[in-house]
Amino acid sequence: MLSYASGVSDLPLLGETIGANLERTVARFGDREALVDVAAGRRWTYAELDADVDRLARGLLARGVERGDRVGIWAPNCAEWVITQYATAKIGAILVNVNPAYRTHELRYVVEQSGLRLLISAISFKTSDYRAMVTEIGFEDVVYIGTSEFTDLFREGPVPVADLAFDDAINIQYTSGTTGFPKGATLSHHNILNNGYFVGELINYTEHDRICLPVPLYHCFGMVMGNLAATSHGACIVLPAPGFDPAATLAAVASERCTSLYGVPTMFIAELGLPDFSGHDLSTLRTGIMAGSPCPVEVMKRVVAEMNMSEVAICYGMTETSPVSTMTRPDDTLARRTETVGRVMPHLESKVVDPDSGRPVPYGEPGELCTRGYSVMLGYWNQPEATAEAIDAARWMHTGDLATMDDEGYVNIVGRIKDLVIRGGENVYPREVEEFLYTHPDIADVQVIGVPDAKYGEELMAWVVLRPEAPPLTAEAVREFCAGKLTHYKVPRYVHVVEGFPMTVTGKVRKVEMREQAVGILGLEDAAAIRNA
Question: Which of 83, 71, 110 is nearest to 223 (CA)?
Answer without folding.
Answer: 83
